[in-house]
Amino acid sequence: xxxxxxxxxxxxxxxxxxxxxxxxxxxxxxxxxxxxxxxxxxxxxxxxxxxxxxxxxxxxxxxxxxxxxxxxxxxxxxxxxxxxxxxxxxxxxxxxxxxxxxxxxxxxxxxxxxxxxxxxxxxxxxxxxxxxxxxxxxxxxxxxxxxxxxxxxxxxxxxxxxxxxxxxxxxxxxxxxxxxxxxx
Length: 184
Prior knowledge:
By secondary structure, this protein is α+β, with helices and mostly antiparallel strands. It is built from one helix and 13 strands. Strands 1, 2, 5, 6, 7, 8, 9, 10, 11, 12 and 13 form an eleven-stranded antiparallel beta sheet that branches. A two-stranded parallel sheet has the order 3-4.
């Protein structure tokens, strides 16, 4: 009896793992995994995220208008898992100190300003908002809603200036957000 129970549990576990793996790969077909990498001298910043498509939807806007991402609401800055940012050295993130480490990056978009948050709870599924008590940094940046249209959500870094200052860029639909980064 005990042997049968163990076999049944192993079969059920394998089936669940297979189903979970299939669902995970199916969601990645619609929002593929992507990363952005910044390297300057000995500074390395890596952002891992999933990149959804616009598909003729209203992306940012008022909830009453059916926006996919309503103003004033938590957004994981991508799809699927939480967007992570890994920094190998202490930096200034929009002129605020950010220590080396691995974090979750999330946003609260607004019409003209976005809140960008860095949270130490990075190993999680991104759909549910992280606990704000674990935010290590919160900052506000301007949003450009007249940017060239971008069908697929994209995170990039600008080219650094001679001192290594650059920006982390979030671009989707006609919205572009630039977050200044520099070494301490």
